[in-house]
Design a protein that fits this description.
The chain is of the alpha+beta class. A six-stranded antiparallel barrel has the order 1-2-5-4-3-6. A five-stranded mixed sheet has the order 14-15-16-18-17, covered by helices on one side. A four-stranded antiparallel sheet has the order 7-8-13-12. Helix 2 packs across helix 3 and helix 5 packs parallel to helix 6. The longest helix has 35 residues. The protein starts with a helix and ends with a helix.
Length: 412
């Protein structure tokens, strides 16, 4: 059975009658499955997400139009079950009620642009000299992709395909729908498909792009390639020996351009340079950052060695060092320089801020084994270790003083 959304995809409102309404549970939430005599809300299928919309229950008194706005029932999902479109709502609607439904047109039209764009892109990619067959496709929230049966696509070929597709869009070729009585109809021999659903019965729709492609499809489509406006091919990814080719069509091209422009404007301010110099500026900043990081690491090591010398020369048996931020170079250097000292004395190193800190406890093996867990408890944290080293995480820096006192009292 062909639904109204498939027969007239540009229809935005329709009056229909409720055939059934059943309460169901999805997790902890209660929903309702509503079936209508007909619908303009597309059920997810063919790679196209479902429509969203609203059902307005028509009052029994047809003159009481004001009540229509009070009877809005949002449709947040539509799924295909045994050839029937099932509408999911959070409110029930009485069986037999007449409803005026309205589709979320912005979402629907976007899906129509992306889906028709996918048909056109797949058709061109499958032609000579490319011969890339579409294995699958995905209509995402912001970008789409087709999975092509080729291990890679060069930038040159990608640009060539893009130019061919946009040339056809500019030609404004019509997009029409043919309907065949069943999947066994001989007229379907020229149509492409990745296969009909196993439970499919009844008429079969074929979307034709004049002179370019005929493809079996259940989705909603445009009337003309001109309505696509344009297509932009983005990046590619490898997947199991195939290639995912990402793209956007229609209004999404403008959205992508707007987002890129906003990023460009922010970078103009941050880099104090025009777009054509962004790459060289970022490369310079990256190089400077690597140099600065190496210098910082060297300074951390030198500082740790200086602190280690001071601690070695002190008379304290429990050595305490507190650093405001985690620093692996400092920690490793300090522990290395105090290795011999920790055979007879204890070291407690804490690094980090209130709410998220680390600790390292070193000393004679038997002492660390004996006091490690107790130290972690005094710090209100957790940890573990062996061979004279116990480390972990804690949150409250105010507990460090008590932890140090614990070590002094128990280290003989």
């Amino acid at each position: 059975m062909l639904l109204k959304c498939q027969k007239e995809p540009f229809l935005q409102q329709l009056t229909s009658k409720v055939i059934s309404c059943n309460e169901v549970k999805k997790g902890k939430k209660k929903h309702y499955e509503i079936v209508l005599e007909d619908t303009i809300l597309f059920a997810e299928g063919g790679g196209q997400p479902c429509d969203h919309g609203v059902l307005r229950v028509i009052p029994s008194d047809v003159n009481d139009i004001e009540k229509l706005s009070l009877n809005n029932v949002k449709v947040h999902d539509v799924q295909r079950k045994h050839g029937t479109a099932v509408h999911y709502t959070d409110k029930s609607v009485a069986v037999g009620s007449e409803v005026n439904m309205e589709v979320d047109w912005k979402r629907r039209y976007d899906h129509m642009q992306q889906h028709t764009g996918q048909h056109l892109l797949s058709a061109i990619a499958e032609q000579e000299p490319y011969n890339y067959k579409t294995v699958s496709w995905n209509l995402g929230a912001t970008i789409c992709h087709v999975e092509l049966n080729t291990p890679s696509i060069s930038d040159e070929v990608k640009l060539e395909i893009e130019q061919k597709v946009n040339s056809l869009i500019q030609s404004g070729r019509p997009v029409t729908t043919k309907v065949y009585a069943s999947k066994d109809d001989q007229g379907l021999s020229s149509a492409h498909t990745r296969g009909l659903p196993a439970d499919h019965t009844g008429p079969v729709r074929v979307i034709e792009i004049e002179g370019v492609d005929e493809n079996m499809c259940c989705g909603t489509h445009l009337n003309s390639l001109a309505q696509l406006q344009m297509i932009k091919l983005l990046h590619t990814e490898s997947k199991r020996g195939n290639t995912l080719l990402y793209f956007v069509c229609g209004d999404r091209v403008l959205n992508t351009l707007q987002s890129a422009l906003e990023v460009q404007q922010k970078l103009n301010v941050l880099l104090s340079s025009p777009p054509e110099l962004f790459a060289s500026m970022v490369e310079k900043l990256s190089k400077d950052n690597r140099t600065a990081r190496k210098n910082a690491e060297k300074l951390s090591e030198e500082l740790a060695s200086l602190h280690a010398t001071t601690l070695i020369n002190s008379s304290d048996r429990v050595l305490v060092v507190q650093r405001p931020t985690p620093d692996s170079e400092y920690s490793l250097t300090l522990q290395r320089d105090l290795r011999d000292t920790c055979e007879k004395r204890l070291l407690l190193l804490t690094m980090g801020e209130q709410g998220g800190a680390q600790f390292v406890f070193r000393g004679p093996v038997e002492v660390v084994d004996k006091l490690g867990k107790g130290l972690a408890q005094k710090l209100g944290g957790k940890g573990g270790g062996r061979d004279g080293k116990f480390q972990g995480k804690f949150s409250d820096l105010a507990l460090v003083e008590g932890a140090v006192q614990y070590l002094k009292e128990n280290f003989e």
